[in-house]
Specification:
This protein is α/β, with parallel strands linked by helices. 46% of the residues lie in helices and 13% in strands. The protein contains 14 helices and 10 strands. The strands form 2 sheets. Strands 2-1-3-10-4 form a 5-stranded mixed β-sheet. Strands 7-6-8-5-9 form a 5-stranded mixed β-sheet, with helices on one face. Helix 3 (36-52) crosses helix 12 (291-302) and helix 4 (64-78) packs antiparallel against helix 13. The chain is globular, with a radius of gyration of 24 Å. The N and C termini lie far apart (94 Å). The relative contact order is 0.17. Residues 17-22 have low confidence and may be disordered.
Length: 365
């Protein structure tokens, strides 16, 4: 009598083992790569995200082609169906801030994830309780960045950082300077552009840091060159290539890379005084309509695979420790940069408004 029972029990065990093996074989790459202790929780999050069926994220830098690569990699990494929707909006920083503030004030949040390089504004949202507390499993790789004040553990890391520096086309200008001061008088008045700080919080943040570094007298001299105000970084780069302007004060290496891929001859300098690093903080809104998808999106974008897609597409600087940049000329390792130090967490909206007023008095838009 015992033999049939033992056989039946063995069959049940084998069937169970076969089922577990089959389940493991069906797991997407994210689950297969996860520690055993985290696999089941990750499966549940993926299932919940698939049920949500959508994620909405707004960003101020990432271009549509890079988004498409991220979205495809994201679906594959988590085994999500092609029908899973990645709703992406590219926005100027000022417009993004306005949109998020409006949604928060109205109590009707439609945006899951925000990416913006305005750390003072993001810190204010954290303090106001508008940022979801989430300990991404990718955060340990960003501890060095957190230690430098370029993120906040448990709330946000940056999906990529960028800088605004002097840039020109070698087909139009032979600029040999290695200092911000070399820009003064380098081209005739009216032949230089500057990012419009009245409409962009990142141009404004850069001005605030440069103001401490270079002093007000430098900017008075820069204003004498009658710089033309431009908002979009893509347009700044294009105007250099066409020869409409000769030099850009607010040039972006990201755009130099993208335009040079198409035959442009853009060049930029990382001045010896240091660069103002603008980490594009990526955070989940506290009332995100698709919280599970949002968590997975943040995890993927911050992963080595996600960072490689972003750096290859946008030439932004990664905050991951040990990350080997595939584009060191345009996006050098973060530890190799001379970064102008700023305590972004202590800067308030009032401080930014005051700086904006000073900027307007100088450049009189």
């Amino acid at each position: 009598m015992l033999k049939p029972i033992r056989c039946a029990l063995l069959a049940m065990i084998l069937a169970g083992a076969t089922g577990v093996a089959a389940a493991a074989a069906d797991d997407p790459p994210a689950v297969k790569a996860a520690p055993d202790a985290a696999k089941e929780a990750l499966r549940k999050t993926i299932a919940a995200a698939a049920k949500e069926g959508d994620i909405s994220y707004w960003d101020a830098v990432i271009q549509p082609t890079t988004n498409n690569a991220l979205a495809a990699g994201f679906r594959k990494h988590y085994g999500l169906p092609e029908s899973f929707k990645v709703s992406y909006s590219l926005s100027a920083t000022g417009a993004l801030v306005t949109r998020v503030d409006q949604e928060l004030s109205a109590g009707r949040v439609t945006i899951d994830v925000v990416g913006i390089a305005s750390l003072p504004w993001v810190h204010e949202k954290v303090r106001a309780g508008h940022v979801m507390q989430y300990a991404s499993p990718q955060y340990p790789a960003y501890q060095a960045a957190f230690d430098k004040g370029l993120g906040l553990d448990g709330y946000f890391a940056f999906n990529g950082a960028y800088v605004f520096v002097p840039m020109w086309s070698t087909e139009r200008l032979q600029f040999k300077g290695d200092s911000y001061k070399d820009v003064l008088g380098a081209v005739p008045a009216g032949r230089i552009t500057i990012g419009d700080a009245t409409k962009s919080v990142t141009y404004l943040a850069t001005y605030m840091a440069h103001r401490e570094l270079l002093g007000i007298d430098f900017f008075k001299k820069l204003a004498e060159m009658k710089p033309v105000l431009v908002l979009r970084s893509e347009l700044i780069a294009n105007q250099l290539i066409t020869g409409q302007y000769q030099l850009a004060w607010s040039g972006m290496p990201t755009r130099a890379y993208q335009f040079n891929q198409k035959g442009g001859k853009l060049k930029f300098v990382l001045p010896k005084e240091g660069v103002v690093l603008l980490p594009q903080a990526q955070f989940i809104t506290a009332k995100a309509p698709h919280p599970n998808a949002a968590k997975l999106w943040v995890d993927y974008v911050l992963s080595d695979e996600g960072q490689r897609i972003i750096v290859n597409g946008e030439a932004m600087i990664s905050g991951r420790s040990g990350f080997k940049s595939p584009l060191p000329e345009y996006a050098p390792p973060i530890d190799s940069l001379n970064v102008v130090k700023m305590d972004w967490a202590k800067i308030s909206t009032a401080d930014m408004n005051k700086a904006r007023e000073e900027w307007v008095s100088l450049f009189n838009p």
